[in-house]
Each structure stands twice: as structure tokens, then as C-alpha cells.
Design brief:
The structure is a single chain. The chain is α+β, with helices and mostly antiparallel strands. The protein contains 4 helices and 17 strands. The chain has one domain (67-299). It has helices at 2-20, 125-129, 200-204, 212-217; strands spanning 67-71, 80-81, 90-92, 96-97, 104-106, 136-142, 164-170, 174-175, 181-182, 186-189, 193-197, 235-236, 240-243, 251-256, 263-269, 274-277, 293-299. The strands form 5 sheets. Strands 4-3-16-10-13 form a 5-stranded antiparallel beta sheet, with no helix packed on it. β8 (174-175) and β9 form a beta hairpin.
């Protein structure tokens, strides 16, 4: 009998443990997918974060076309300086007074900013070989060979590459907001580097250039086959002197003959080789002086 009572006690204990065991049912404070349960907006809910970083000037102009001026130096920044020293009248586009570092106050002509002369960053072997990395640059994209012949084109328009000229001129003299003029200044572009690449999209990152590689591959399939014209541009002006006045005229930077220049043509200058030279007699105020340049891409007539 004692044994029987012990067994009954054991069974009762097991029953109690069974009642206390965890259940498999799950509940949430707010059920997902139920609009009413969450006051009108169901769960899950999401939001986004943008993380960004940029390098150099990555905002080309809006030009389009088989032949286009794709990029020019948007700002040439000759810095902010303590004074105008008549013994050191040359300033460079990296914000320095040439050979007179003690006179360099800020790297940008706009006080407190970093130097705004944008430089090219590239991994393209052709452009690296041409020493274009770290240059202020202008780019002409020539895709004329990819133009499908069309009866609506002008009779002078062909599918050949080249036959264009890139030039630059000053629009006006350097002036302050109050109108004071720095007359007779000269802007020098010295020791031009020239690079030529077929990786147009890799350089420009513009959607309009995305099909260029495939378009070039299709040239050999045309009847008759089209000469891609991938020769370098043959006429380059390595040093240009721009007169900073409204009387300035066009200065030729480069000229492509027929059959030259298909792809992206990059003309670059090290910032220290872009120099602003002022006359020793120049009188300056505590002011910012700015002027404008115009770059022009013309078809050779």
C-alpha cells in the first residue's frame, strides 16, 4: 500500500509539470500587415539613408551629340594672398603665389574654402600614361564614326572622325564686385598633357556614352566598313597665353584632322602650370577678382 501511494504521488507531480510547460503559441504587441492595428499604417515600415562621397568635378555640362565639348575647368582658383608683392607677380591655379609661399593666406580666392581647381582622377591606363592624373582638364568626345548615315543630314556631314578645333578666350578682365579692374593680366596654360582613350563611358560616366564600345564594334560589320579613326589628335598648342580682357581673341588649344580623335580627347594642365601673371604696377584692394573664359568646339570648315 505504501508503494501504491508513492506511485500516485509521482503521477500527480508529473501532471503538475505538464500544466506548467511552455506553450507553442506566439503573440506580438502589434500584428504585422494590419492597418487598423497600427493606427492606419501597417508594419513593417521602412526608411532610407543615403551615404555619399565624391571626388573632383563630376558634373559635366549638359552638351550632347556625336561631337561634343564634354568638360572644361569650371573654376581656376589662384588663391587668397596677404598682399600683392611687385617682386612676385605670378600666381598658380593651386592657390599659390609663385616662389613666395609666405604670401599665401588661403588656398582659395573665396576665403576659408579649399582650393577649387578641380583635378582629374582616373584609372584609365591611356590617360595615366599621358600624365593626366591630377590635371585640370578639358575633354572633347568624338563619336562621329558611330553616326548612321542619314539622308536628312547636311551634305557636308560625314561619318568621319576629326575635323574640329578646340579654342579658348577670355570674356573680360579680372574685376571686383565694386568694379575695380586688374588690367593687362595674362593667363598662361603651359606644358599641356594630351591623352586619348576609347573608354569614353569610363571617363565621362554619362549614359549617352554607355553604348560607345558596342557601337565601335559594329563599325566593321557595316558595308562598306568604317575606319574608326582612332589616331591621336596631331595639332596641339602646348602653351597658350590668354589676355585677360574683353578684347581677347580665340586661342587654339587643339585641332583634329580628318580621321583623328575618335573617343575621348583629354587636354590637361598641372595646376602649377596654369599661371596668372599680373603687371608689377597693378593696384589691388581687399577684394575678390573674377573673370570668365569661354571654351569653343568648332567644326573645321
Amino acid at each position: 500500500m505504501k508503494f501504491t501511494k508513492l506511485t500516485s504521488a509521482t503521477l500527480a507531480s508529473a501532471t503538475v509539470l505538464s500544466i506548467l510547460a511552455p506553450t507553442t503559441s506566439a503573440f506580438a504587441a502589434t500584428a504585422e500587415g494590419k492597418t487598423a492595428d497600427n493606427g492606419g499604417v501597417a508594419l513593417p515600415q521602412t526608411d532610407t539613408t543615403k551615404a555619399g562621397i565624391s571626388f573632383g568635378d563630376n558634373k559635366p555640362n549638359p552638351n550632347t551629340g556625336f561631337l561634343r565639348l564634354q568638360m572644361v575647368p569650371h573654376v581656376l582658383d589662384f588663391g587668397n594672398h596677404t598682399k600683392f608683392d611687385t617682386a612676385y607677380t605670378t600666381f598658380t591655379a593651386d592657390g599659390k603665389n609663385y616662389a613666395n609661399p609666405s604670401n599665401d593666406r588661403q588656398a582659395s580666392y573665396e576665403n576659408g574654402k579649399a582650393n577649387q581647381t578641380a583635378l582629374l582622377n582616373t584609372q584609365d591606363p591611356a590617360l595615366i600614361k599621358a600624365n593626366e592624373n591630377g590635371d585640370a582638364w578639358a575633354t572633347v568626345v568624338d563619336k562621329q564614326v558611330t553616326r548612321t548615315p542619314n539622308k536628312t543630314y547636311d551634305a557636308k556631314t560625314t561619318q568621319a572622325s576629326g575635323d574640329w578645333t578646340l579654342s579658348v578666350k577670355a570674356n573680360d578682365s579680372l574685376k571686383s564686385a565694386s568694379g575695380q579692374e586688374l588690367a593687362d593680366g595674362q593667363l598662361l596654360f603651359k606644358n599641356m598633357n594630351y591623352g586619348h582613350t576609347q573608354d569614353v563611358f569610363g571617363l565621362t560616366n554619362e549614359t549617352q556614352d554607355q553604348s560607345f564600345k558596342d557601337d565601335m564594334a559594329n563599325l566593321a560589320k557595316q558595308t562598306p566598313a568604317v575606319d574608326p579613326g582612332t589616331k591621336d589628335v596631331s595639332t596641339l598648342d602646348k602653351t597658350i597665353a590668354v589676355d585677360m580682357s574683353s578684347n581677347d581673341t580665340q586661342h587654339e588649344v587643339a585641332k583634329a584632322a580628318t580621321g583623328e580623335g575618335t573617343g575621348a580627347n583629354v587636354f590637361g594642365w598641372a595646376p602649377e602650370d596654369i599661371q596668372l601673371v599680373l603687371p608689377a604696377a597693378t593696384s589691388v584692394q581687399n577684394a575678390e577678382y573674377t573673370a570668365n573664359l569661354t571654351w569653343t568646339l568648332n567644326a573645321v570648315k
